[in-house]
Amino acid sequence: MTGTTLALVEIDNHNEVFAALGQASLEIFLDEFAERVSRFARDGDELIKVQPNKYCVLLNGLTESVQIELAGAKLARLFEAPITIVDEEFKASVHTAFVPPVAKQNGNNRRRLQIAESALIEARTHNRPYVIRDQSSDLACVDVRRPREIELAFERGEFVMYYQPLVHAGYRSITGAEALMRWHHPEGVRAPGEFIPYLERSAILNSLTWFTLKSSMAQAADWPNAPSISVNLSPLLILDPDLIPNVSDALSLFDFPADRLVIEITEDAMIENPERTKNVLQELRSLGIQIALDDFGIGYSSLASFRELPVDKLKIDRSFVSNLLTHPRDKNIVKAIIDLAHAVEMKVVAEGVEDEPTASLLQEMGADLLQGYYFGKPMQAADLEKLLT
Ligand code: C2E
Ligand code: CA
Ligand code: CA
After folding, report:
1. Atom 35 (ligand 1): residue with closest C-alpha?
2. How far is the CA of 237 from the centre of ligand 2 (A)?
3. Residue 312 carries which DSSP code?
4. DSSP readout, 101-139?
5. Ligand 1 binding pocket includes 181 (Cβ within 6 Å)
6. Helix (H, G, I), strand (E, B) or coil at 389
7. For 201-237, b where at least 16 C-beta lie within 10 A, e where not — what string?
8. Cβ of 180 below 6 Å from ligand 1
9. Three-state DSSP class for 112?
10. Is-contact 86 120, C-beta < 8 A?
11. How far is the CA of 162 from the centre of ligand 1 (A)?
C-alpha cells in the first residue's frame, strides 16, 4: 500500500534537565533529541518540528502494522543510550504515536495530528514507548465514536459534576474544590480521560465545559464556608469571544462571588495563541476571578516563561508529586517550582497527593494547597457538602 504513516515523537523529561543543570544544558538535551529523531527519519520521509520537544515524521511508504512495529522498535533503540551532559547521564523519556493512513488515503494531516496528540496522552498515561492509533478505529471506546452519542447522553443528563477537595497545606482544612466531570454511562461511571481527549476541538466539549461552569456555580453557591471552585477550561474556549460575557452572566445569575471562582487552564492554551490568551486571562482576573495553570511542569515553555503569565496559582503536575519521596530529581524540581512561584507571588497547589509522608514533605517545602486521593477522591456534591459542615 502506498501512503505515509504519521509519527508524532515527544520527549517529556526535558524539564528534569533544566531543573538539574539549567537552560544551556536543556538546549543540548533537546538538540540531541532532534538529532536522534532525524536519524530515525529515512530519505524521503518528511520531518517537521512541532515544538522543541516534539517532532512529526511522515514515514513514506510505511503503512503495514508490522512495519510500524519495527519503526517503533527502531526508535526505542535510538533512545536506549542515555544523553550525556557535563558528565551526567539522562535517560530520555520518549513517547511516540503512529497514525497510519486509511485505505491508501493519508487523509487530512491536521486531523491525523489531532489523533496523534490524543494517542500521545494515552502513551504517556500508560507509559508505553509507542501507540498505534488507526484512524478508522481511533476512538477506542465505541460510544464516543459518534459525537451524537455524547450529545444524547448530555441531553439525558448523564454528565454529572464531581468535586475533589483542596486543602490548606498547614491546617489541612478544605478551602476549595475542583469540579471534575463524570459520565454516568449505563454501563458504569466514566472518567474524563475516557472521552475528553476524543472531543478536543469539538463543539460538544464547549457545551460540556459550559455545563461544568454553570452547574458547579449553581451547586456550590450555598455551600458552607464558601470554598473556592476550580473549573477546567478547554484551551479552545479561551478564544471564544463569548467567554467573558458568558462567565460574568453566570456569576451574576448564581450570585457567585468572582473571587470564589478559579479557572484552570493548561499551557496548550498559551502555545496556540499566547497574546490573545494573556489578554483574556487578564480580563478574567479584572473581574476578580483567579487563574490557575494546570499540569505545570510537563509542558515545554513552563519554567522559562511562566513569570510573565497573568496567573495566580500553579498546579504542580501529579507526575512530579507521586515520585517525590523516591526520585530526588523530582523533589528538586518541585522545590524549584515552589520557590520560583513564590518569588513572583503565585500560590502553589500540589496535585496527586496520595499519602501523609508526601503531604508533610510538600508542606515543609512550602506548597500552599494540597489535592489528592489522600484528602479525598472526586465525589458528588452532597458528599463534599457534608465534609464542609
Ligand atoms: P486535571 O485537571 O489534571 O484533574 C486532576 C485529575 O487527577 C483528576 O482526574 C483527578 O481525579 C485525578 N487525581 C486527583 N488526585 C489524584 C491522586 O491522588 N492520584 C491519582 N492517581 N489521581 C488523582 P479526572 O477526574 O479523571 O480528570 C482528568 C482530566 O480531565 C482533568 O485533569 C481535566 O483536564 C479534564 N477535565 C475534567 N473535568 C473537566 C471539565 O469539566 N471540563 C474540561 N474541559 N476538562 C475536564
Ligand atoms: Ca485541573
Ligand atoms: Ca492537573
Report:
1. 192
2. 15
3. S
4. -BTTB---HHHHHHHHHHHHHHHHHTT-SEEE--STT-S
5. yes
6. coil
7. eeebbbebbbebbbbbbebbeebeebbbbbbbbbbbb
8. yes
9. helix
10. no
11. 10
Q: Of 183, 186, 209, 205, which Cα lies nearest the Cα of 196?
A: 205
CA distance 12 to 197: 19
Classify 326 as helix, strand or coil: coil
Give the model confidence (pLDDT) of 161-180 as tens digits.
999 999 999 999 999 999 99
Supply the pLDDT for residue 63. Answer: 87
Residue type, 290: Q
**Least confident range of 13-17, 127-131, 139-143, 149-153:** 139-143
Does 212 contact ligand 1 (Cβ within 6 A)?
A: yes
pLDDT for residue 283? 96
Residue nearest to atom 27 of ligand 1 (CA): 192
- The set of cell numbers assigned to 139 is 476512538
pLDDT in tens, 277-327: 899 999 999 999 999 999 887 665 555 567 778 999 999 999 899 999 999
CA 361/CA 350 separation, integer angstroms: 11
Ligand closest to CA 296: 3
Strands 188-190 and 228-232: unpaired
Residue whose cell numbers read 458528588: 380
Q: Global pTM?
A: 0.72
CA 38–ligand 3 middle distance (angstroms):
32
CA neighbor of 238 nearest in space, from 202, 284, 204, 192: 284
For strands 313-316 and 347-350, give the pairing: parallel
Containing 195, the helix (H) or strand (E) segment is none
| Grid cell digits, residue 9 | 515523537
